[in-house]
Amino acid sequence: MNAQSIAVARYYAVLLARSQRWLGPVLFYAIALAIDSAGGDSAADAFAYNAAFLLPVSAWLTRAILTAEPPEGAAITATATGAVRARLAALSVATGYSLLCAAVGALVAAATGGLGGASTLFTGLATELICVLLGTAAGVLTSPPLVPAAGWGLLLSGLIALGLLVARFSPAAMGLRALTQAANTGPGSHTAHLPLAALPAALLAVAAAWAFSTAAAIRR
């Protein structure tokens, strides 16, 4: 990342912070964490719960940053820095904000349910990362220029997030199933094993979504 890319990323980070568009998803996630922390779940259950909420929250944050800039401002930024650099900087910042939420969720899960063993901890953290990645993919596919209307974009991002959580072969669903199965094996047996294909599949999905959205932005 060169100096110009860092400057553009810093610009988008400040833009999102000042726009206060992050308040909705962050408050939503904070309320979800507060509800779960009072339930006394095991580490596997806590990680599964937190990761499930991270997916729609990441999609929401991605849409928030991609719509925080007025069209005129976005055109100026793309002209000054390059459309690809501007788009990737915005998406990187959205991912960074989502990863901060994931870090807080992991700390809450560890504080309320314990670490649950090395395999459960790894699976929990990897599932949170997968949900963040897939959430950014859902957010970018439902943001301008692909979906210009704000209402339809929000609805579609929610539906895609839900589909990714329940679809059998979704990387997010694979991680959540591993954590849920570990939580249901009984005390002393909470060992979760993330399917090997889950994380690479999530990385491929987010790369494809980012590339498709960036190409659409460039054509526009």
Q: SSE string, helix = H, strand = E?
A: HHHHHHHHH
How far apart are the first and last residues' alpha carbons, in Å? 25 Å
Q: How many helices?
A: 9
Outline, from the CA principal axes?
Answer: elongated
Structural class: mainly alpha
Residue-averaged pLDDT: 89
Number of β-strand runs: 0
Tell me the helix content: over 70%
Question: Can you give a write-up of this model?
Answer:
- With 220 residues, this protein is mostly helical.
- Helices cover 79% and strands 0% of the residues.
- It is built from 9 helices and no strands.
- It has helices at residues 3-19, 23-37, 43-66, 71-81, 83-113, 118-141, 150-166, 171-183, 198-219.
- The longest helix has 31 residues, at 83-113.
- It is elongated.
- The two termini are 25 Å apart.
Could you list some keywords that capture this structure?
single chain, 79% helix, mainly alpha, 9 helices
The gist of it:
This protein has helices at 3-19, 23-37, 43-66, 71-81, 83-113, 118-141, 150-166, 171-183, 198-219. It has 220 residues and is mostly helical. It has one domain.
Write the layout of secondary structure elements.
Layout: H1 3-19, H2 23-37, H3 43-66, H4 71-81, H5 83-113, H6 118-141, H7 150-166, H8 171-183, H9 198-219
